[in-house]
Write a structure and sequence with these properties.
Layout (H helix, E strand, L loop, with lengths): L2 H16 L18 H19 L4 H4 L12 H17 L8 E3 L2 E3 L1 H23 L7 H11 L3 H5 L16 H8 L6
Antiparallel strand pairs: 1-2
Protein name: Tigr03086 family protein
Organism: Streptomyces xiamenensis
GO molecular function: metal ion binding
Length: about 190
């Protein structure tokens, strides 16, 4: 599977779940201990809003603080839809992954940035499904691709506090269970 296809499928999976958020669910808790459903959607939406800027070569300083705080406003779904549409266009445009992008980790190959964004969309789609009590099944091919990307790096990422420590699951568990467990979530 091409990287841009994985990104698009992960984006679609998160999008489907955003559209299922009920009016009374925005304050519901998620597996991300400090985030409500709204906080989680705000985080992922903010990440997507950044993408077109970074893929155009802008620096973090040039983007500035415009996406700090609440980006969802009074119509979270509409803001998400716009952010997703613009990010998808940016990631899938001609030559989009050819040049490195500026990230908080420094100048990063755009393909690595796309993998990170696919990871973010995938794991948070599961979190969002759990927070809204909807279908949490992930695209199996995307989950496999993300797991293959994350597994060799997770030890180095643990020190940054990005993910909770891995949860133990059977080595022959389905890839979705192994992925969410690797990222500190209890698949049960």
């Amino acid at each position: 599977m091409r990287l841009t296809e994985a990104y698009e499928r992960a984006l679609a999976g998160f999008d489907r779940r955003v559209r299922l958020v009920g009016a009374g669910q925005w304050d519901a808790p998620t597996p991300c201990a400090q985030w409500s459903v709204r906080d989680l959607v705000n985080h992922v939406t903010g990440e997507q809003l950044w993408a077109p800027h970074l893929l155009r070569g802008e620096t973090l300083t040039e983007v500035g603080d415009r996406y700090d705080g609440d980006v969802l406003g009074d119509d979270p779904v509409a803001v998400w839809e716009r952010a997703a549409r613009e990010a998808r266009t940016a990631f899938t445009g001609p030559g989009a992954l050819d040049a490195p992008v500026h990230t908080s980790g420094g100048l990063t190959p755009a393909e690595d940035y796309a993998r990170q964004m696919t990871l973010d969309l995938t794991v948070h789609a599961w979190d969002l499904a759990r927070g809204t009590d909807t279908d949490d099944r992930l695209d199996e091919e995307v989950a496999e691709m993300v797991f293959t990307y994350v597994e060799p790096q997770i030890g180095g990422w643990q020190g940054f506090g990005i993910f909770d420590p891995p949860v133990e699951v059977a080595p022959d568990a389905p890839v979705q269970e192994r992925l969410v467990a690797l990222l500190g979530r209890d698949p049960a």
